[in-house]
Design a protein that fits this description.
single chain; alpha+beta; Cathepsin B, Chain A; seven-stranded antiparallel β-sheet; two-stranded antiparallel sheet; about 30% strand; globular; USP
């Protein structure tokens, strides 16, 4: 769906992203880079229907070749609907010539993350006046090994049921006011082996997938 927004507010976010100053090598830096404002020029110019119509006229001769008009543009990917469950998939491979190489670098991630700096100012399921969209970590998938072989393990938090998630799914909005991580016990799961672990152990893992549930 294509919509026309006020140019002054089209690229505005729910919270000021310029105050973030995210640390390199963190999930905040990854999100900041993924949602950065891009300028489309030269071969990346955008096909503009309005400019084309203005140039060729509203009624073109069917026999004549229509000349499409391309224009410079700005592009930014922002979240327009905050999900009940946030799943972040980290790209853990890079090209090395004609081969793929696994990226083993540790990416820092928090127990509670605020998505507001990455949400559009008109985010659909955020109450008016709210400048925070908070999520609590409850699951991590980790991969050990190489691109050719390896092993997947998981960290999962056993916790009380989050009733606010059903409100989000069924009604599109939650009345939750929690701003702290959901209380519970973390477990490390590897095949049939399950053992309790500390939250520091979880946060030091080389995450491949991150699972967060919405708090606010």
């Amino acid at each position: 769906k294509v919509s026309t927004d006020d140019p002054e507010t089209a690229f505005c976010t729910l919270a000021n992203r310029e105050e973030l100053n995210p640390e390199e090598g963190s999930i905040h830096h990854c999100l900041y880079q993924f949602t950065r404002n891009e300028t489309l020029t030269e071969t990346n110019k955008l096909l503009c229907d309005v400019c084309t119509q203005r140039h060729c006229g509203p009624k073109n001769n069917i026999k004549s070749e229509k000349k499409y008009v391309y224009t410079n543009a700005k592009k930014q990917m922002l979240i327009s609907l905050a999900p009940p469950i946030l799943t972040l998939h980290l790209k853990r491979f890079q090209h090395a010539g004609f081969n793929l190489r696994k990226v083993n670098r540790h990416i820092k991630f928090p127990e509670v993350i605020d998505l507001a700096p990455f949400c559009t100012a008109k985010c659909k399921n955020v109450a008016d006046g709210n400048t925070k969209v908070l999520y609590s970590l409850y699951g991590v998938v980790e991969h050990s090994g190489t691109m050719r072989s390896g092993h997947y393990t998981a960290y999962v938090k056993m916790r009380a049921m989050n009733n606010h998630l059903s409100d989000l799914v069924l009604r599109g909005q939650s009345q939750a006011l929690e701003t702290e991580p959901v209380k519970g016990q973390w477990f490390h799961i590897s095949d049939t082996h399950v053992q309790p672990v500390s939250v520091s152990k979880v946060l030091s893992s080389q995450a491949y997938l991150l699972f967060y549930e919405r708090l606010l």
